[in-house]
Write a structure and sequence with these properties.
Helix content: over 70%
CATH class: Mainly Alpha
Distance between the termini: 62 Å
Structural class: mainly alpha
Radius of gyration: 19 Å
Length: 190
């Protein structure tokens, strides 16, 4: 009979997410993971089977976390335009998790796009979910008269997603003033 796990695999995924977020997939070594998670190499491979499997779990956790944050903001009560601004403003104000690391999904897209279909698919799903949340909010705003109904909600949602992705890159450089200007310009387009 094997020894019981001396660590919480769920907490280990969170720690691994932070490490992959800081260093990227390629630059994170198994030894980095062992040190970050405080476990032995055998435990790492026994529990997660590979660095890649752990990365996939960490990226999936990140995707769920990001979508939850966006939808929580967009589903809050109040005028739709204010909720859309708040969703973008989280980046401009230095969302604690994003200020120095950018967005794990955007970082992954830059690092692995074109060479890793599974990672590209995970990032694509995140972007689709965020765009879908933006689109639902825009359609609500169009029904309430807050947003002009003559614009295709899908197109405006794509613009917001693209702005969100660009803002994630700017957030890595901690360019708060530029981020605030982007939010103001995007909102003026609505």
């Amino acid at each position: 009979m094997g020894r019981p796990k001396q660590f919480d695999p769920d907490a280990a995924v969170d720690k691994a997410m932070g490490l992959f977020w800081r260093k990227g997939f390629t630059d994170t070594t198994p030894q980095d993971l062992v040190a970050e998670l405080g476990i032995g190499k055998g435990s790492l491979y026994h529990t997660f089977t590979s660095k890649r499997a752990l990365f996939d779990l960490a990226l999936a956790r990140y995707v769920d976390m990001r979508v939850a944050g966006i939808t929580e903001t967009l589903d809050a009560p109040g005028p739709v335009v204010e909720r859309l601004r708040a969703a973008l403003q989280r980046l401009a104000d230095g969302d604690v998790a994003l200020t120095s690391r950018g967005c794990l999904a955007v970082n992954t897209a830059v690092e692995l796009a074109g060479s890793d279909e599974a990672a590209s698919d995970a990032v694509r799903r995140l972007f689709e979910r965020i765009e879908g949340a933006f689109r639902a909010a825009i359609e609500e705003g169009q029904r309430s008269g807050e947003i002009a109904a003559d614009r295709a909600a899908r197109d405006v949602a794509s613009l917001l997603l693209t702005s969100f992705i660009g803002m994630s890159v700017l957030a890595r450089n901690r360019d708060a003033e530029r981020l605030r200007r982007v939010v103001d310009a995007v909102m003026a387009l609505l």
